[in-house]
Structures are given as C-alpha cells and as structure tokens.
Amino acid sequence: MNMIDEKCKLCLIENRVKDLIRLKGGDKIPYLLKDLSYQLESNKDRDSLFVDSFNYIKKLIKDEDPYKELKMNLNKIGKEASLIVRKELIENNWNLDLALKFSASANIIDINVLGYEYVDLKDALHDEVKVYEKINLPKEKEIYLIFDNSGEVYIDLLLKESLIKNGYNVKTVIRKNSYEIDVTSDEIDADIIIDGNYSPIKKINEGFIIAKGIANLEAYLFSNKKIDTLHLFRAKCEVLAERFNVKKNTPIIISGKNLLNVLKINNLTFHK
C-alpha cells in the first residue's frame, strides 16, 4: 500500500518539475515524469520517495549540489539574522525556551512546498510559536541536534550555544550530500556527518534528538524509533495546518510522543 497523501503526490510532481525547470533541465521532464510514476507505485516511505526523486534530478542534470549558489545566498541571510537572535538571547541570559522558539520560527525557508509563499527570515523570527507541552530536555543524555535548511542553520547554531550554556551535552548532526536546500557538511562544521542524503534521524539510535524541519519529522514517524525526540518546524502547507489545527506557516514545537498522539496515526507523510 502506498502511504503518501494525494496532495503530497501533487506536491512531489509539481515541485520536482519546478526543480528541473529552475535548474535549466526542462527538456528532461518526460524522463522525470516516467521515473516519478514508477516511484509513486512503490512502497517507499516519504523520506526515501522525496530524496530518491531529487537524486534522480541530480543525475539528469549531472550536478551533485544543484542549489549550491542559492544555499550560499541563504547562508548570508541566515548569518545576518543570527546577529539579531544572538543579541536577544544575550539580553535574556541565553533562555533556552526562547532559543527553541527562535529555531522553530527560523524554519521559514523553503522552495518545494505546494502553495508556499516566501517570507523573509528576519520578519519571521518573532512569529508566535505553538508549543504543545512543557519542554523538558534531559541533562543526563547526549542531545543530538539535527540540522535542516541552509540559512536557518545559523539560528540553530545559536540553539546549540544556548543548550551548552544551560548545561547540556550537544552534538550537531548534518547530511554529507545535498538534498534540496538542506545544509551539508560542505557549508558548516558539525559533530556528526551522516553519509548520503537521507534524513540523519534514521542513523541516530541513542540519546535525545532535537530535529528541525518536516523531512526529519516524517523520517522519525516511519523509523519506529524508541528514543525521545523534540521537533521544531513550521506547518508550511495545508496538509500540516489541517493536521495540527493551526494557521498555515505556524511554527510548532512538539515532542515525538505527543506528535503521535496529536496525529492519532501510526504512519503519515507530508511535504518537506
């Protein structure tokens, strides 16, 4: 049984076609559509489906990091925005709840969500965050902070700094190879570099995970992991907004356990 939502199928097809056009490979759309048709008939989970289709685009255009230039620009924006966040965190004695909210709000940058409208990172930093429970992070466990998009990663690095200043042991986790505009080991340093470009959450099997973004959230849903997690993301599409009963683009902070309770499901896929 294919477990991807019909709207997500549309999102995948539309945005992978947009990828090719954006990357000057429009003449290869027939090959892409044939591959997508095959993949949508498979039983792949969301992470594998979206990553494999992006990898096919990289193969078609013969470019291992097709959004490299865009990511460089996003990182410039992220660095500038991080100055604002750093100032506020210093003024608030590196308050961890505030750092988590900034990190969730910073999940604003995206290129491949159906109906997504661009919002400037600096303008989005102070959006009201939907926090589903009191946040309790374990000091007795290693915390693995899994990064998401380029640009926003500079806000996430301040979350790491805040965690350390509040007495937590933190390791940052990053993909080695490119996937859309996700940050890779070519852009910033991280404590753990995961080979390939699937969600790093699949490879962490100990400690406590703080995962940024929808792709990592979905990978968690399908991983059947027994360890505790905290998810920071935005409801960037109608599917997510409906599921979480929030306005589209609302930043959300929720634990993995509560996530499953809110969704009332065992398996689900969204868009990134």
CATH topology of the largest domain: Rossmann fold
What is the level 1 CATH name of the largest domain?
A: Alpha Beta
The helix-strand sequence is: HHHHHHEEHEEEHEHEH
Oligomer: single chain
Shape descriptor reads globular
Layout of helices and strands, plus pairs?
Blueprint: H1 6-22, H2 29-40, H3 46-61, H4 68-91, H5 96-105, H6 121-124, E1 130-131, E2 143-146, H7 153-165, E3 170-175, E4 192-194, E5 208-212, H8 214-223, E6 229-234, H9 238-244, E7 251-255, H10 256-263
Parallel strand pairs: 1-7, 2-3, 2-5, 3-4, 5-6
Antiparallel strand pairs: 6-7
Helix pairs in contact: 1-2, 1-3, 2-3, 4-7, 5-7
Descriptive overview:
This protein has ten helices and seven strands. With 272 residues, it is of the alpha/beta class. It has a seven-stranded mixed β-sheet with strand order 1-7-6-5-2-3-4, with helices on both faces. Helix 8 links the parallel strand 5 (208-212) and strand 6. Helix 4 packs parallel to helix 7 (153-165) and helix 5 runs antiparallel to helix 7 (153-165).
Short description:
The chain has 2 domains: 6-61; 68-263, 3-Layer(aba) Sandwich (Rossmann fold), CATH 3.40.50.10880.
Key words describing this protein structure:
alpha/beta, Rossmann fold, 2 domains, 10 helices, about 45% helix
